[in-house]
Structure formats: C-alpha cells, structure tokens
Amino acid sequence: MEITVVRALYFSGTGTTEKVVCTLAKALGRYLGASVERFDFTRPEAREAEQRFGPGELAVIGTPVYAGRVPNVLLKYLTGKLRGSGALAIPVVLFGNRNFDDGLIELRNILEQDGLRAVAGAAFVGEHSFSRTLAAGRPDKQDLARAEDFARAAAEKIAALSALPETAVAVRGEEPLRPYYTPRDRQGKAVNILKVKPLTDLDKCSGCGLCAALCPMGSIDPVDVSQVKGICIKCCACVKKCPTGAKFYTDPGYLYHQHELEEGFARRAAVETFL
What whole-number distance in Å separates Cα of residue 143 and Cα of residue 60? Predict the structure, then answer.
C-alpha cells in the first residue's frame, strides 16, 4: 500500500510522548518514502480543530497513559474531532514505568471508531510525570533505537498490504476495559488526588508566564500564575519546565503516591510493540 503522508499527532505535557511519536513518524516517512507532518494537540485551543485523514495517509497518534488508561480529558477530542475515511493508524502510548494496562487497547479502539484502521501499535516508557527518578531520562537511546526498529517493521507490513486489513492489530489489554488504576495507602484506602493542584514559590517565580502557556488545560492564570483556576491533570508540565523551579506539590496523598511509585516500580520497564 502506498503511503504519501505520515502524520504525527500527540498530546505531550513534558515532551516524552512527542519525542517517541515524532521519532516514529520520521522513521516511517523515511522507510515509506512519504512526507511527514506534525500536529501537537496538547494545548486546549489545538483540540478545537477537526482532523481528517484519507487514503494514502498514515496517522501516528500518541497519548500518555494516566492511571492505566487514555486520559479522560482527551476523550471528547479523540472521539469527536478525528475522522478516518480509510486511513491507516498506529496508536502509541507512553507510560511512566508502572504499566500501560488498558491504555493502548483503549486508544486503538477509539481510533477504530473514528474510522482509522490500526495496523500496528506500541507502548513506550517515558519519565513519570510525578518524578525525576522513575524512568529518568526515558525515552532514552535504547528506546529510540527500539522505535527505529519498530518503524522499519511497521513500514514493511504496510508496504506489503494490497488493501486495508480486515481487522485491527491485536494489542495487549483487556475488554471490557478495566477501571482506572487507584493508588491505595498502607491501610488499603484509596488515595484521591483528583483535586490536588500545584503551588508556587513566589520567591522563586520570575513571572515569566511559561507555566500558564504550557498548561494543557489552560488552568493557570497568566496574570497571577499562583492561581490554578481550572482542573489540574498532574501532567507536571509546569513543574518540570519551570526555569526557576517555582512550581511544586505538597499534598500528602500526592507525595505518598509519588514515593510509592518510585519505590515499587524502580525496575526498567519494557517497551512493547505490536504488528
């Protein structure tokens, strides 16, 4: 099957999903002799525009995994603004070293419902949004080499197709989808951090406004960046990208969950690919 355009689409608060999706798209474009286009739907205004895909196009669409699933704040966009019409797709998820649970199968199913045929899929590891030590520096050189190998194999599969595959690629995950992963304290009680928001050290804050510009929910007040007026999804874009280190969390439940993850999932989690 001839592919003329590879389109990379991604939601990426701290850049890990972007890095993997763009690496894959660039390699796929090279192997398939196709041009490459990028679309970042991290910012809320980007999620207003409809994206249409047609024959001859390959969409590489990536999201992070939050609590083992596709972030629920993205469901409206993913189910309402993407239109397939006979294009191939490769769903890609990034998880923070614990597990991707049903995130990949959920994204695959969403793209299928949008009219895109999932021909391959992958789950890569990125540094956890809560941590600077859990999967630190990933995706790293080894991960990106794996992305190159996966792109080569996917391109070979696509080039050999004479028509759209009759069924979507099989990926790991369960159906029906399992509930979102819930952290629990040492007494087994659920740790609820849904309403937790970052704080600002005003002695460190330079007032540059970068955190407000980066917030995927548009929740940080650009006039007074210490105010988080909307929801916080804990992507930690504001924390990790603040040039002065002024953003931080102090909520006990959040910190407990962070340390639980760092202590319990310190091994090098494996990338998984599906063809």
Answer: 17
pLDDT digits (tens, 9 = 90+) for 197-237: 999 999 999 999 999 999 999 999 999 999 999 999 999 99
Indicate the SS3 state at residue 69: strand
10-60 pLDDT, tens digit each: 999 999 999 999 999 999 999 999 999 999 999 999 999 999 999 999 999
- Of 9, 10, 16, nearest to 237 by C-alpha is 16
Q: pTM value?
A: 0.97
Q: What is the DSSP string of 141-175?
A: HHHHHHHHHHHHHHHHHHHT-SS--SSPPP-S--S
Phi/psi for 207 (5° steps) reads 75, 20
* Six token digits for residue 136: 């630190």
In single-letter form, the type of residue at position 216 comes to: P
